[in-house]
Amino acid sequence: MLALALSRPPAHSVWWTAVYDLGHAPLFGFVALAMRVLVGTLANGRLSLAEQYGLAFALTAILSGASEAAQIGSETRDANIGDALRDLAGGGACLLVAAGFEGLFRGAVARTVMVLSGVSLMSAILAPLGPLAWSYSMRRASLPVIADYASQWQKPLTQALRVDLSSTIAPEDFTGQGGEPVARVRFRQAAWPGVDVVEPWPDWRGYDSLRFQVYAENPAPKMLVLRIDDEAHNGTHSDRFNRSFTIHQGVNDIVVPLEDIREGPRNRQLDLSRIARVLVFSRRPDAPYELLFGPMSLNEKAGEQP
After folding, report:
1. What is the rounded CA–CA span in Å between residue 169 and residue 160?
2. What CATH class is the domain 144-300?
3. How far apart are CA 115 and CA 15, in angstroms?
4. pLDDT, tens only, 177-193
């Protein structure tokens, strides 16, 4: 309880954010089991087994509601109905398993159904961690590619900010990408539309440059901005790497030396071992437009291994 109440997940970690959110279920499963033991001890035979389980679940629900209500007005925590629902689902799942082993209902079939129902419910709650773990493993396996908007593994680690993001097959004149899946990004007529890779592979040391290709079907030039933050970024414009690019019709091959990225912040060097964010965006387009993006990759230094 104290771990969830007093601490927060690392600011740049999608994984730990998910663990903190989904962790409410097993946490309140344990709480529900503790309530079951407490109620059984205090009842001392005056309540039936069904009444004890019902009271244990009710007390778990009250504690869940109280814990969420206590966060109202907090500067660091927010009351969340999703957390409360996970609390109740986790508590219910563990009580189902316990009731099955304790024999709340007679008959082996009924007991087995209760146990399997509880296990299935808890598994369903925690299921999102599986695909997310796969995304992290693919992030490592895909190096030197650090962002591929068209891939499935990239999606949990990407935010579409006022853009429509989809995949398509690159036209044949998209040099190096022809016939391959690429990302189609439709920038809306809004402020700062873009694609945000919120947790790229963090260690860029041992590489020489960052490279990606952008394909424009429309002849009118478009302006894009590349922004890169490290974990020490203080939120100001001058404390990160920023560079603008003019995108012309056809293939645009963009290469940025990592030394330029390192020297991006005004008053310090950007830490290439702790990259936290890569954002490509447009400023304020006069009208919606589309661009195609190939994978964003790191180029290795000659004669060196990362």
Report:
1. 20
2. mainly beta
3. 29
4. 888 999 999 999 999 99
* Separation CA 1–CA 155 (nearest Å): 31
CA 194, distance to chain mean position in Å, is 17
Q: Report the chain's terminal Cα–Cα distance, integer Å.
A: 41
CB atoms within 10 A of CB 130: 10
Pairing of strands 241-247, 250-257: unpaired
At 292, the pLDDT band (50, 70, 90 cuts) reads: very high
One-letter amino acid at 16 equals: W
Domain residue ranges of the chain, discontinuous segments joined by +: 2-127, 144-300
- Mapped onto helix, strand or coil, the DSSP state of residue 303 is coil
Q: Which residue type is seen at 95?
A: L
List the one residue out of 282, 222, 225 whose CA is nearest residue 247: 222
Could you read off the pLDDT of 56-86 as tens digits, one per residue? 999 999 998 888 787 776 655 666 788 889 9
CA distances from 132 to 13, 119, 212 (A): 12, 21, 25
Residue 146: CB atoms within 10 Å = 22
Q: Is 103 helix (H, G, I), strand (E, B) or coil?
A: coil
Backbone angles phi, psi at 86, to 5 degrees: -65, -35
Residues linked to residue 145 through DSSP beta bridges, in sequence order: 297
Cα gap 278→210, rounded to integer Å: 11
- Cβ–Cβ < 8 Å for 132, 142: no
- pTM of the predicted protein model: 0.81
Residue with tokens 């935010």: 159
Sign of CA dihedral 154, 294, 199, 167: negative
The most distant pair of C-alpha atoms in the chain lies apart, rounded to whole Å, by 82
